[in-house]
């Protein structure tokens, strides 16, 4: 029997998606919209493996993927990309999501 | 104490401005846009809220087109230096503050052609007069919405229409009217609006904004860190980052946001009515005081600014004597040298009385008493 990861940090990390932006202000715009609609999101530093710098990204759950993409489109927020965080053993990578 | 120098900076501010600034500095003032921790994000959210309020007040869709500046002068410099190039022609007026006249003079040295219009005896410009100056290389019309010396309000709707018909950029200096008189960027066809945060918007000093309407290409004047695209050595070209290098004035912007909220709650028209009531009262009383010379009172509309002189007296002397009575006004040229050629006060300057929302009718009555005393005892 394996370990149940459903409520652990590892499990949350496994299913995370992140939106990456060119501009922190656009990140804020989307963050505010999603927060107002009570999405389960958090603002994080953009992983340097995606873009070297000090910009911000928004992390959200897999369940909200379609809804977040819809909000991005309907509010005409300019984003750089959406990535899925994939954990394979101890390695972590970000996979570009086509939207 | 009676403070009547709101044309220079508004005082007092609403109580909430002080409270929110103290709370910011004491509780959460991290660096906005430079981290992903909660304190930094909190600062950014407050700043973004202020952008939204400014966008709403001046009727533009995208809050990211609001650029925070240190004051209106800063915004006007970005607009003038960022837009104009050698060989361009601009039209502006005698009523401008040095915040326009000095950068314009500098551009003139760099090969920009300048037409300066005098307007009528109150400096009021007519659309016909401006239209006659338009040339094939006219790039911009730069107009002070409300004179900081005589309160003359220009018809920026008509001037904006003229600019748009002729594909000329329209730059408005809203230093004396923002927060007290409606400025609708969309309706008035304004391309660039510079406003201070510390006057009618009731925020602290060190704040201001340049609001850039869509499709205005401006060069940046300042380069540096923006918290975005940090891997690149090139300045970001998107708004507001293009013009906001360096750490923003978070406590100031938080205070400005509170000032804007106060204006929303009170209603801009109520603020205008209150200030106009005080000004109209003074002007009415001055009519029965023949030793008071008033300037710029012929316009049908004006902001809450009156310029006067007391017969036979230097403006500075009047200011000094009022100061002794704890009445604070500004005297002299008011950083607007050319308007004095329009109203004939090149040698004297004026005594400027600029009441604000928190002044009372009783304070105006006290001012009248002291002016009478000054004249009698001179």
Number of helices of chain B: 11
Q: Separation of termini of chain A?
A: 37 Å
In terms of per-residue confidence, which ranges of chain B show pLDDT below 50 for 5 or more consecutive residues? Answer: none
Spatial strand sequence of the major β-sheet of chain A: 2-3-1-4-5
Which ranges of chain A are low-confidence, i.e. pLDDT below 50, for 5 or more consecutive residues? 1-7
Q: What's the main sheet of chain B like?
A: 7 strands, mixed
Overall shape of chain B:
globular
Give the helix level of chain A as a range of percent: 25-40%
Computed Rg of chain A: 14 Å
Mean pLDDT of chain A: 86
Extended strand count of chain A: 5
Tally of strands of chain B = 13
Portion in helices of chain B: 25-40%
What is the H/E order of chain B?
EHHEHEHEHEHEEEHHEEHEEHEH
Oligomer: heterodimer
Query: Which chain pair shows the most residues in contact?
Result: A-B, 19 and 22 residues
**Continuous helix count of chain A:** 3
> What Rg of chain B is obtained from the alpha carbons, in whole angstroms?
21 Å
Structural class of chain B: alpha/beta
Q: First CA to last CA of chain B: what distance?
A: 23 Å
- Major sheet size, sense and barrel closure of chain A: 5 strands, antiparallel
Please characterize this protein's 3D structure.
The complex is a heterodimer of chains A (99) and B (378). By secondary structure, chain A is of the alpha+beta class. In chain A, 29% of the residues lie in helices and 31% in strands. A 5-stranded antiparallel sheet of chain A has the order 2-3-1-4-5. In chain A, a hairpin with a 2-residue loop joins strand 4 (81-88) and strand 5. Chain A starts with 8 loop residues before the first helix and ends with a strand. Mean pLDDT of chain A is 86; it is low at 1-7. Chain B is an alpha/beta fold and 378 residues long. Chain B contains 11 helices and 13 strands. Chain B has helices at residues 15-28, 38-57, 72-83, 98-109, 127-133, 156-165, 250-266, 268-286, 315-324, 339-343, 361-376, and strands at residues 2-3, 66-69, 89-93, 113-117, 138-144, 169-173, 192-196, 208-212, 292-295, 306-310, 327-328, 330-332, 350-353. In chain B, the strands form 3 sheets. Chain B has a 7-stranded mixed sheet, sandwiched between helices. In chain B, helix 6 links the parallel strand 5 (138-144) and strand 6. In chain B, helix 1 packs antiparallel against helix 7, helix 2 crosses helix 7 and helix 3 (72-83) packs parallel to helix 4. The longest helix of chain B is centred in the first third of the chain and has 20 residues, at 38-57. Classes of the chains: A alpha+beta (99), B alpha/beta (378). The A-B interface holds A 22-26, 28-29, 31-32, 43-45, 51-56, 78 and B 33-36, 41, 44-45, 48, 63-64, 226-232, 236, 238-241.
């Amino acid at each position: 029997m394996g370990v149940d990861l459903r409520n652990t940090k590892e499990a949350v990390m496994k299913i995370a998606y992140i939106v990456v932006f060119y501009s922190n202000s656009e990140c804020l715009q989307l963050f505010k919209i999603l927060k107002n609609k009570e999405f389960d999101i958090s603002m994080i530093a953009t992983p340097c493996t995606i873009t070297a710098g000090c910009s911000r990204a928004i992390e959200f759950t897999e369940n909200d993927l379609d809804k977040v993409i819809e909000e991005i489109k309907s509010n005409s927020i300019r984003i750089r990309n959406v990535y899925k965080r994939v954990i394979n053993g101890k390695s972590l990578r970000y996979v570009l999501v086509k939207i | 104490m009676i403070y009547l120098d709101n044309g220079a900076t508004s005082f007092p501010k609403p109580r909430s401005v002080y409270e929110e600034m103290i709370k910011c500095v004491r509780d959460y003032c991290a660096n906005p846009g430079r981290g992903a921790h909660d304190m930094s994000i909190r600062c950014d959210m407050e700043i973004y809220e202020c952008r939204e309020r400014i966008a709403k007040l001046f009727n533009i869709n995208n809050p990211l087109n609001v650029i925070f500046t240190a004051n209106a002068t800063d915004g006007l410099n970005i607009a003038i230096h960022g837009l104009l190039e050698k060989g361009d022609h601009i039209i502006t007026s005698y009523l401008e503050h040095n915040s326009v006249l000095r950068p314009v003079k500098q551009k003139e040295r760099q090969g920009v052609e300048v037409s300066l219009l005098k307007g009528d005896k109150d400096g009021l410009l007519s659309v016909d007069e401006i239209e006659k100056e338009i040339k094939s290389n006219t790039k911009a019309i730069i107009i002070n919405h409300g004179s900081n010396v005589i309160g003359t309000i220009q018809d920026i709707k008509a001037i904006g229409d003229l600019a748009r018909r002729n594909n000329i950029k329209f730059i408005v200096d809203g230093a004396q009217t923002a927060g007290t008189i409606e400025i609708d960027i969309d309706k008035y066809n304004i391309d660039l609006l510079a406003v201070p945060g510390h006057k009618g918007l009731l925020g602290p000093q060190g704040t201001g904004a340049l609001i850039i309407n869509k499709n205005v290409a401006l060069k940046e004047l300042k380069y540096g860190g923006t918290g975005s695209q940090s891997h690149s050595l090139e300045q970001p070209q998107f708004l507001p980052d293009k013009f906001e290098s360096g750490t923003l004035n978070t406590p100031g912007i938080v205070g400005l946001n509170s000032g804007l909220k106060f204006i929303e709650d009170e209603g801009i028209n109520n603020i205008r009515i209150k200030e106009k009531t005080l000004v109209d009262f003074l002007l009415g009383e001055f009519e029965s005081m023949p030793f008071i010379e008033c300037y710029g009172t012929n316009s049908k509309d004006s902001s809450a600014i009156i310029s006067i002189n007391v017969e036979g007296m230097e403006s500075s002397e009047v200011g000094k004597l009022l100061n002794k009575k704890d009445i604070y006004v500004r005297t002299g040229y008011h950083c607007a040298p050319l308007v004095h050629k329009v109203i004939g006060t090149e040698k004297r300057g004026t005594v400027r009385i600029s009441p604000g929302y928190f002044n009372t009718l009783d304070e105006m009555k006290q001012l009248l008493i002291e002016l009478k005393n000054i004249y009698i005892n001179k």
